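# nightly structure sweep
# worker-07 picked up a monomer target from the shared queue
# config: single-sequence mode, recycle default, output format = structure tokens
# input follows
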Amino acid sequence: MIEPPNWHFAPACVGDPVSAVDTPALLIDLDAFEFNLRTVHSRIKATNVALRAHGKAHKCPEIARIQVAAGACGVCCQKASEAQAFVDAGITDVLITNEIVGASKAARVAALARIARIGLCVDAPLHVAQIAQAAHAAGSTVDIYIEIDVGRSRCGVHRIDQALELARLIAAESPALRFNGLHAYHGASQHMREPAERAEAVQASVAKVRKFVAALAAAGHACPVITGGGTGTYDLVAGTGVYTEVQPGSYVLMDKDYALNRLASDETQLRQALYGLCTVISVSPTHAVLDGGLKTFAVDSGLPRMVLEGWTVKSVSDEHTVIVPSDEASALQVGDKVRLVPGHCDPTVNLHDWLVAMRGQIVEDVWPVAARGALF
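# output follows
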């Protein structure tokens, strides 16, 4: 079990003003968070496709519980230890949208499947053999999804004969393994900037999925679930008539990178809900320095963006962010607190033990990031 961090080190208490939050910290604007939740869930519900919220974005069981209460059928995650954190918190339907390799990981997944519905992805015979051995030993049943590469060039089988062989191996291990369908996620399409680009990528994925489904059905292997899609494509994927489940994750938080996506005329702009809060610790005539750096913000999708107009992030180092003013910028003083929009929400959250949920200028809750560092 992954224990939550020591409350002694929480950056805030319920009822505190945001100005009293210790920094660096991550804030969640609950009004924006709830708007995003309502917007995405209602749009998906209208298509009769299931929503399985991706927990790798927030790694926070409290958020997962809110998502399930709002209609999500369960959550996704990427690691066996992440699944453990969500199951320990009472989430009873978890899909690991990744391949699991290693006897210890397989044993953990098989043990979880005794108390919750657990699924995972395979694209090689070794994956099937390891999880089958573990599930037989645990006396559990694990849902298995064959992952197909629909354009991400990452994990997944490329050929139909590979999928047929995996389906045969999975069927031979019943009841320890249950073939539940296909995982067909096109990660790169989430960040294609133009709506037409995203639509084209989704249609290409659908064409490939149809071929695999038909071949598997002809061999006697029905695919009850086709799962994929994300925050950038959930509406397109849900409307294909092929996918039965979508996996948005960043939608409740958002970040600078997703804000760069241009929307189709019928899409709703989701709101920025996640912010880094930092304190000004040094000021000079040319710049100011904040108390959060690379240990506060992930920069794989670029530097964070200042919310305060007139100020721009110049550089980020281990413990500091240097910001520079324009001619119109308001002056900052040592002790001032400022907000920044992370470039990429998922790895940014993984740097923090806590999410400070605020309503207006008051802290409404403090949520532990219980699956932080759950990498195995």
